[in-house]
Amino acid sequence: MTLPAQILPEHHRHCDELFVAAEESVRRSDWKAAAAALTRFHDQLKAHFEAEEGLLFPAFESATGMSGGPTRMMRYEHEQMRNLLEQLAVACAAHDGNGYAGDAETLLILMQQHNMKEENILYPMCDRALGADAERLGAKLNDMLEKRHA
Amino acid sequence: MQPLLSFEQAPPISVPYRFFLTAPLFGAIAGMILVFLGAETLQSRWSQGALAMTHLIVVDFMLQAMCGSLLQFVAVVAGANIWRPRLVAAVVHPLITAGAVLLAAAFLMERPLLFLLAALVFATALGLFLCVMAMALLRTPAHGMSIHILRVAVCGLLVTLVLGAMLAVTLGLQGEVLPVSSLPALINVHVAWGLGGWALMLVIGVSILVVPMFQLTPAYPVWLTRLLPAALLLVLVLWSLQLFVPGAVAQVWQPRVALAGVLLAGAYAATTLWLQSRRRRRLVDATFTFWRGAMLALLLFTLSWIAFEVLPALGEHPRAPLWLGVLILPGLFLSVIMGMLYKIMPFLNWLHLQRQGGSAMPPPNMKQMIPEAAMRGQMQLHFTALGLLLAAVLWPPLAQAAGLAFSVSCLWLEWNLLGAARVYARFRDKIRARLSLT
């Protein structure tokens, strides 16, 4: 089974792991490892946003005709998270441990409340709305995220 | 159904904040009652002071904070704002506040009329709150156990309210409606639904989401998230049968039903502690420690309950229920609430300021909203006050010191939260000034 409601939450957990790895390196003031870990987290999160914005959301919007509601807000939150990722990169480059910790905390809460809405509401709605196409789309999402993963 | 699903991030910031900024003040008043009435308050759970303090804590602190959080939280778990949040908050918040003050005054002064007024005010406030919550929670397309548990919790609040109003009317009319002999069973059931069916159910529903996602722990086992709320609900229903069967019959199985409920609560606490010990994010902050302290208090509550069952001489002591009450109210519930407020307010500040200022004026990050040292200091005082309250149950001459420590801890919490509100107002004014220049 490769439904979006199964693949995307798994990838959320993967991003969580990468978030923790970067934060731990910063806490140890191991800036070299932190920069590498942050880049991996950054790449995966961006890949996740691109998969949703490029594949999932358009499919959901055309299947339901809802383009101004949930997906608009999800895109807006992606933008908020992209900005925080930039701020994290700046703090990491400046070896600013406090700044990083504050921005990381903000990103974590924003990201998790965003994930809750997607996992509990949007993804199951997508699976239902897309019907038979859901598995095909899930496979595409899987490919896209796995390629980035490699 | 669809227009409801807006995925709005949040109701206006004043909606939760008015609840959050009022709640700790009543904790401070509860502590001062202990300071003024002293050791006498801790003679039994039925003392006027103990009854007044309990209701100030459960209604004006806990209920206030929980209603404010729920108005906010529903936007995330149900994907929709509640109906007219500003209006609902403007009605519910002052009425809950007034209702709890009336109720505490009714206990302290033993005035029947005040009980009647309190019942009327609560019925109005919570009636409205329950209606809008039910609308949001029933119409959502959201999935997951959390949403079911929140629905049950809201029903728990309804049952608590109805039984509480019956009690208040009975006390207000001096036994004209219901015989005074029915009071003990009514109180038992009212307390169980308030603490187990509403407050604990809400905490369980919230922790299933919040503990794994924000502390990055493994998820709660799926079977437990199904079993726990269902079993707790069954216990509450069985416990409520004492309203309908003769006392002698009920006395045979009541203690076993209660024990089952307490063991379920203990299992939840132990699971949460176990998950926390396996968290991937090693960071330990005030919120995390508040949660851990809360779960330890709940575990100690469970162990104490078992000890009271095993040693009836201890369990029948008039101060035994106070020991349990301290562990469950300030120990479990207030610790969770304080820990959550320290996350919710900084995040809401950021969220609302970010929307106003956009990327041109990025708001301060979450850690710049309330100083970490202030949160830790207040947390240490809270746990010290908790220790003193427990010690005062054992040795009542400590009551005044415990009351004072608890009061100061609540005031410090208020100061920290006001600090967050001030940071919000300052930055909002900066954004407005910048916008008016451009």
Report on this model:
The complex is a heterodimer of chains A (150) and B (438). Chain A is an all-alpha fold and 150 residues long. Chain A has a single domain, classed as Four Helix Bundle (Hemerythrin (Met), subunit A) (Up-down Bundle), CATH 1.20.120. Chain A is built from five helices and no strands. In chain A, helix 2 runs antiparallel to helix 3 (70-93). Chain A is elongated, with a radius of gyration of 16 Å. Chain B is mainly alpha-helical and 438 residues long. Chain B is 79% helix and 0% strand. Chain B has helices at residues 14-37, 48-77, 85-109, 112-139, 145-172, 183-215, 222-240, 247-277, 286-310, 312-315, 320-357, 372-394, 399-437. In chain B, helix 6 packs parallel to helix 8 and helix 9 runs parallel beside helix 12 (372-394). The radius of gyration of chain B is 21 Å and the shape is globular. The chains are: A mainly alpha (150), B mainly alpha (438).
Q: Keywords for this structure?
A:
heterodimer; A: 150 residues; mainly alpha; Four Helix Bundle (Hemerythrin (Met), subunit A); 5 helices; elongated; B: 438 residues; 13 helices; globular; disordered N terminus
Low-confidence stretches of chain A: none
Q: Give the DSSP E fraction of chain A (strand runs of 2 or more residues).
A: under 5%
Overall number of domains of chain A: 1
Mean pLDDT of chain B: 92
CATH topology title of chain A: Four Helix Bundle (Hemerythrin (Met), subunit A)
Please state the overall shape of chain A, judged from the principal axes of the Cα atoms.
elongated
Task: State the order of secondary-structure elements of chain B, H for helix, E for strand.
Answer: HHHHHHHHHHHHH
Radius of gyration of chain A: 16 Å
Portion of residues in helices of chain B? over 70%
Q: What oligomeric state is this? A: heterodimer
Unreliable residue runs of chain B: 1-5
The largest pleated sheet of chain A is described as: none
Shape of chain B: globular
* DSSP strand content of chain B: under 5%
Quick one: CATH superfamily of chain A? nmb1532 protein domain like
| Portion of residues within helices of chain A | over 70%
CATH architecture of chain A: Up-down Bundle
